[in-house]
Amino acid sequence: MKGKKGYLKRKVWVIFGALSVFVFVFMVKYVVFSLGVSDSHLIRFMSAEFLVCLVIAVSLFVVVVVRKLKEIKAEEQYEHIKRTKSVSENGTNECQSCGNRQVAEADKSCKICGIKFLGRLN
Ligand SMILES: [Zn+2]
After folding, report:
1. CA of 47: how far to CAs of 41, 42, 43, 57, in Å?
2. Is the pLDDT of residue 2 over 60?
3. Which of 32, 57, 116, 122 to pair with 39, CA 20 to 30 A apart?
């Protein structure tokens, strides 16, 4: 399955991206504090900056989660369709996994690819 490796790669990049946002925010705070600036305006500005970064990070996280859930749902639908038999134009049953048209009405599994049928498509 080629999607597994790509998924792990993307996951690593998302974690790296989120971490770099937080590292950047804390680095800015560290640099400003090490300069000895303790102006209340500056602290207010930094708090606002931190909140903006937090909102961006959370919304990116939500986008990633929603996309992942959609991907899982699509994968489930695809797996279900693959495990059905459908009636082709000339009235025979067809396996949706391998395209075998020699599937009898009573068959519980495909004789060619061995997949177990969950139901029919139409
Ligand atoms: Zn088959």
Report:
1. 10, 9, 6, 15
2. no
3. 57
In the reported structure, the alpha carbon of residue 35 is separated from the centroid of ligand 1 by a whole-number distance in angstroms of 70
Tell me the CA–centroid distance for residue 90 and ligand 1, in Å: 18
Residue 53's CB: how many other CB atoms inside 10 A?
A: 15
> pLDDT digits over 39-67, tens only?
777 778 778 888 998 999 999 999 999 99
Q: What spacing in Å lies between the alpha carbon of 73 and ligand 1's midpoint? A: 23
CA distance 51 to 29: 13
CA 113 to ligand 1 center in whole angstroms? 4
Q: List pLDDT tens digits, range 83-109.
A: 998 887 778 889 999 989 988 888 899
29 C-alpha to ligand 1 centroid (Å)? 61
Contact in structure between 96 and 82 (CB atoms under 8 Å): yes
pLDDT of residue 64: 95
